[in-house]
Amino acid sequence: MIARALLLLIAMFGIAVSAAAQDREVPYWATIRASELNMRVGPSADYRIDWVYRRPGLPVKVIRVLEGWRLIEDPDGARGWVVARLLSPDRGAIVVGKGATELRDAPSDSAAVKWRIEPGVSGVLGDCEAGWCELTVAKRSGWIRSARLWGAGDP
After folding, report:
1. Into how many domains does the chain fold?
2. pLDDT of residue 13
3. Residues β-bridged to residue 59
4. Last residue of some domain: 69, 90, 111?
5. Residue 144 has pLDDT above 80, yes or no
6. Which residues form the signal peptide (predicted)?
């Protein structure tokens, strides 16, 4: 009896969390959780696949919520519908702009350069302050100008 009550509470908590996720204000940032994600032309598995992402951690902007589906925009501006459970609320960012830029030891132009990073590289987004964001790529982290990141700042 206690086990049934506990299972019921867990199920109700799961429903409440799912409902809260549906109420999230758009737009918001997310990242691709799956190793393969189909972007469709409409919010159902019945719609044709327009694009297949094979890049976990890629940041996307969620611009509309409809039941278990999310209308996303990717860094190239492509839009389409994806299954919500294959997205993560974790923040990520991708380097944009022309040419390589520096990943620095601290949020300052005078800080030591740790690595040079090319456009198209994505990573886990950390704290952002005064026009700089901490970015972790694989096991390397440093500070990069937020203007060179898609996925930083307000969506």
Report:
1. 2
2. 53
3. 31
4. 90
5. yes
6. 1-21
